[in-house]
Structures are given as C-alpha cells and as structure tokens.
Amino acid sequence: MSLRGTAKSAKNKSGEQGSLISSRDNRWLKRFRACLAGEDDDDGLVGVEGMRLVEAALGSGLDVEALLVSTSGERHVGRLSGLVTSDSPILRTTDRLFAGIADTRTPQGVAALVRPKIVKLEDLLKGVALVAVLVAVQDPGNVGTILRAAEAFGATGAATCSAAGVGTANPLASKALRASAGSALRLPIVHGMSCAILLTQLRVSGVKLYAGVPDGDARLGGKSEGTPPLVRPWEADWKSPVALLIGNEGAGLDEGIVRSCDARVSIPQLESGKTTGVESLNAAMAGTVLLYEAMRQRGGVS
User: Fold this and answer.
1) Which pLDDT belongs to residue 9?
2) pTM for the whole thing?
C-alpha cells in the first residue's frame, strides 16, 4: 500500500509538532525499519539515516515521503527544516524506538524515506560519457566508495550488473549509501541491468569499453587471439566516451566480458607486488585511481 496518502494525513492530523510515536508497531516505524534494513519496498522507497545522508537526500531534490526524528534528534530539525517541503511530514519518536529501527550503532536520531530518481541508460551518456560499470562487486563498502570516486572525478553516471550469477550490491542499501557519502543519491545509476545488454547498448552508443584488470594478471595472456590490448592508465584514451568495467573483488571480470572490451587497463605496482607483498589493489582502490586519471586527461585538474 502506498504511503503517499498516509503521509499527507499524518501531516494534516499532527503537523510538524505532532504527538510522539510511542509504539514499535506503528506503521511508520515498521516502514522505516524495513527500508533502513534494505528490504524491498512496494513503493520503491529507500531509507536514509544520519544527518549527512538525510541532508544529501533533501539537497538532491528527491521526493521525501517522511522525515523521522528521535527526541535527541530534535536538535537537527532547525537545520533541516528549510529543506523539507510542506508535503513531507516530520514524525517524532523516542530515542529507544529510534534505536530499534536504526541501522547504525550510534544513531543520530534522524532518518528519512526517499524515492530515488528513475534513471535510464541515456541519462548516463550525456556529454562525453564516463560511466563506471560495477560487475559483480559484492562488498557494499566497495560499491559506495567507487560511486563516491565516480562523482568526485566527473563520471556522468554508473551502472551495476551481475556476472555468472553473482550480482552487485545494491548501491542504495544503507552500507553502500554511507560509503558513498551521498553520491549514490546524486549520481545517475542504472541498477541491475543485464551485463550483456548493457555492454551492447554502450557499444552501439559509441562508448569505448575498458576492462580494469590486476597488474600481472596473466589469465588471458597478451598475445592470444581475441585478447584486447593491455594498456597503462595514462596510455588509455579517457577523453572519448568511455565505460570503465570494475569486476568482482575475488574473481575480477569474467574472461568473456574482458574479451568483449576494447582494452584492458592495469595499474602498475612494484614488481607486481613482490616487493611490497601487496598482491593487487582492491576494486574500490583501483577504480578510484583509474577514474582520477580519466579526470586528469579531461582537464579536471588545474
């Protein structure tokens, strides 16, 4: 059932200074609890918690279904009031009940239910496209960090997809949201698209496909038929429309996906890690380095 009607009625009945929600079985608390836990919502709502993320959501122009503050969170209402529209009720509850729905260990007493923007692939390709494609990246922290780097370094958008039955963590789940510092709410993201369809449509749109691979990765060799060339970050052409593919933390990118790309891009390390003992950079670190190089080539560094 949609909360749009109940949101308005809550506003009309109680307003911003409404009575305190004191039952854990309250329908609003149940919805907040489910959304903050990352459960699928019938209305497509996402829960965000903490001042930083709530401010990011309000400042991004997202449709806010409701704002929830605890007794101790009341101190933040004045800071947020200018960003909350009259259609969004401000609900209040106790610190104890808020802690029961929160996804963090030390909640700040502020949460919101927001409706993410509907994003299509063409939204990612505006201007000279720079798209971060996350393929079976399972760790929410890595997903959020890559999205944060993508926004910081000028990516036009991001896409997530699965490979060999392994999906990418939901970028709008709480841990990924926190790691992204709000970037997942602002950056256009196409989530859960078929990898084959995504890469085909990117190629049809004239976007080059770069596969991020570990330094010293010899699975495909360098001379076998059908293997895309291996280049260093500064040798790749990031000024053209480009999609950077970042693979699974353990397995990397599937061999078939790599072969479908225009080039493999690897970040050099000292003796492939033998000197330092580091086998390879993790997905988020590698993605950050490569996206920075893209920004540098595009003139984003003064």
Assistant:
1) 41
2) 0.84
